[in-house]
Write a structure and sequence with these properties.
Elements (H helix, E strand, L loop, with lengths): L1 H15 L5 H54 L13 E4 L2 E8 L7 E10 L2 E6 L6 H12 L6 E7 L1 E10 L5 E2 L10 E2 L5 E2 L14 E10 L6 E6 L4
Antiparallel strand pairs: 1-2, 2-3, 3-4, 4-5, 6-7, 6-10, 8-9, 10-11
């Protein structure tokens, strides 16, 4: 009886050391493959979401910096009285030109022409050298209108598909996309934009005080536009 017991014990021991069968191994590999695919898809989704979030944060940060710079320029916009009633703000399609005051330590108050424009889907800020010569301001504004490059240029925001600008005047006629009040007679430029010209001078004259500027940007890949309204400081 003892020999039979030992024989059964050896049989159980041999069965306990038995390895995995081929079917069991294939099932284990299949389960691991499914788990690996699910894990890779989850990781890929996380990486893509993180990249999209970083890109959106960079766009938002770029817009904040661009709007902050424009807010500063609008707050420092020159008074028509200071420029002997010259036009200090112009909009033409996707371009904004303004004349702002510059005050640095040890320097007298000067005027500077600043331009915001959309070119090749990039919102760019350009500025001319500050000066106290009004004739030089006239020449700079003329060169900006003709599309000549400014002395200093910096790209504010890439990926901008469209730019729309409107002005609000004290006459309370609502937003407008032209520099001249409704019904005002003026001379047509080559771009079709009406400007009021001083009698015999060829210098654009401010005939209405603008108090607000609306900028609407549409970024590539975004359905909703970004809109910002600025108060014009000295106008």
């Amino acid at each position: 009886m003892r020999s039979d017991f030992q024989r059964r014990a050896r049989l159980v021991q041999r069965r306990g050391r038995r390895g995995l069968t081929l079917v069991e191994l294939l099932v284990a590999i299949s389960v691991l493959a499914v788990v690996a695919v699910m894990g890779w898809r989850g990781l890929d989704t996380i990486v893509r979401s993180r990249a999209a979030l970083i890109e959106e944060m960079e766009q938002t940060r770029g817009l904040q910096l661009a709007f902050a710079q424009m807010q500063n320029d609008c707050a420092q916009i020159a008074s028509p009285v200071l420029l002997q009633n010259r036009q200090v703000l112009r909009i033409d399609n996707a371009r904004l030109s303004l004349v702002r005051t510059v005050q640095t330590e040890g320097q007298p108050l000067r005027a500077q022409v600043v331009t915001y424009l959309l070119a090749e889907n990039v919102l760019t800020r350009q500025e001319m050298p500050a000066t106290r010569d009004l004739r030089e301001i006239d020449a700079q504004l003329q060169s900006v209108s003709s599309g000549m490059a400014a002395a200093y240029s910096v790209a504010l925001q890439p990926g901008v598909s469209s730019l729309a600008l409107r002005l609000w005047a004290e006459d309370k006629r609502g937003w407008r996309s032209a520099d001249v009040p409704d019904g005002e007679q003026g001379q047509q430029t080559s771009s079709g934009k009406a400007q009021v010209i001083a009698q015999g001078s060829g210098i654009p004259v401010a005939r209405v005080a603008y108090t607000g500027l609306e900028m609407t940007l549409r970024l590539a890949g975004r359905d909703a536009p970004m809109q910002k309204i600025f108060l014009l400081g000295a106008v």
